[in-house]
């Protein structure tokens, strides 16, 4: 349906040549923009109906007081299904610290939250298929679980900024949630407006980059430099993702274009993870609550994990 709509708009209405680089790029852009935004609205609305009672404060309270393994499992799962991005990391970090949740568990949540969410998973299935989606989600969950454990082994409490320990958020007096269908509908619509309003620029940017890559980068060049399973393509992909700023949703079109040109699966996964969880803006936001030693350790753990994931999936593929 989306491909037919894009073909009509690009080749019939705009009159572009289907075999030209510009025609291929514009077709990719129109098809992915319509597909992604339709899926975004539908999935965010449905999940909003189910998530009307969930908030960052309730996430914090849900994890408080659990055994370490159980708290980590809940933190990783909640990070994967909640819509919180890097902009929410500072208040969530402070809230988790104030609640007495181990920092290793907190870091597991901070890794999982930007990397994985249900919206990105549904879009990934629609664009790349369920196998690629399962690979990405499984790898993200493993990185979040073991990344938090590694962070905890270095006792990162000594690197938390002093003011964080002094904040007393206390028990929040949360308003009673409106459980009626109308209340959930209003909450779901607010979720759609808020999340779309926050990420639409990054989605368009990601689709635009993917379209340029798809239409104008020669397949032979990609095969020579990024194709195959050469070891250096994975760390190069991780480094490439650091200066970029997007989320798991916005980077999917770039991954789609890379795979269509023959870039290895592991290399593509490494780039997706780096953009979502290791970008420079994410690190600058976290610097507000942890010292540079913890920040450097966090970045090193993630970069190492992403490279191991990339190399492993390239070997499997």
Largest sheet properties: none
Q: How far do the termini sit from each other?
A: 30 Å
Helix content: over 70%
Poorly predicted regions: 169-174
**Helical region count?**
16
How many β strands by DSSP?
0
Computed CA radius of gyration, to the nearest angstrom: 20 Å
Mean pLDDT: 80
Strand coverage percent: under 5%
What is the global morphology?
Answer: globular
Structural class by helix and strand composition: mainly alpha
Give the oligomer, counting copies of the same chain as homo and different chains as hetero: single chain
The H/E string reads: HHHHHHHHHHHHHHHH
Short structural description:
The protein is mostly helical and 317 residues long. The protein has helices at 2-13, 21-50, 56-63, 68-81, 89-98, 103-115, 118-128, 130-153, 162-166, 181-216, 219-225, 233-241, 248-260, 265-277, 280-286, 292-316. Helices cover 75% and strands 0% of the residues.
Question: Can you offer a commentary on this structure?
Answer:
The chain is mainly alpha-helical and about 325 residues long. About 75% of the residues lie in helices and about 0% in strands. The chain has helices at about 1-15, 20-50, 55-65, 70-80, 90-100, 105-115, 120-130, 130-155, 160-165, 180-215, 220-225, 235-240, 250-260, 265-275, 280-285, 290-315.
């Amino acid at each position: 349906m989306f491909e037919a709509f894009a073909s009509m708009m690009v080749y019939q209405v705009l009159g572009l040549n289907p075999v030209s680089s510009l025609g291929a790029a514009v077709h990719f852009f129109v098809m992915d923009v319509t597909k992604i935004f339709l899926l975004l609205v539908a999935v965010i609305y449905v999940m909003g109906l189910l998530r009307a009672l969930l908030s960052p404060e309730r996430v914090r309270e849900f994890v408080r007081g659990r055994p370490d393994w159980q708290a980590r499992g809940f933190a990783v799962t909640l990070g994967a299904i909640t819509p919180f991005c890097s902009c929410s990391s500072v208040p969530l970090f402070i809230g988790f610290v104030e609640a007495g949740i181990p920092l290793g568990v907190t870091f597991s949540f901070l890794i999982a939250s930007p990397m994985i969410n249900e919206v990105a998973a549904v879009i990934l299935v629609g664009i790349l298929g369920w196998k690629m989606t399962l690979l990405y989600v499984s790898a993200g969950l493993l990185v979040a679980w073991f990344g938090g454990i590694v962070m905890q082994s270095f006792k990162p409490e000594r690197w938390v900024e002093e003011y964080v320990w002094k904040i007393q958020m206390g028990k929040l007096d949360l308003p009673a949630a409106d459980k009626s269908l109308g209340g959930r509908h209003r909450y779901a619509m607010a979720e759609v407006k808020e999340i779309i309003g926050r990420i639409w620029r990054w989605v368009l940017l990601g689709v635009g980059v993917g379209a340029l890559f798809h239409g104008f980068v020669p397949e032979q060049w990609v095969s020579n430099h990024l194709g195959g399973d050469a070891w250096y393509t994975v760390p190069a992909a991780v480094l490439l993702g650091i200066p970029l700023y997007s989320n798991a949703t916005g980077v999917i079109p770039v991954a789609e274009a890379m795979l269509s040109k023959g870039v290895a699966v592991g290399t593509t996964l490494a780039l997706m993870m780096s953009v979502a969880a290791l970008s420079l803006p994410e690190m600058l936001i976290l610097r507000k609550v942890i010292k540079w030693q913890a920040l450097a350790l966090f970045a090193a753990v993630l970069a190492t994990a992403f490279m191991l994931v990339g190399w492993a999936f390239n070997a499997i593929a």
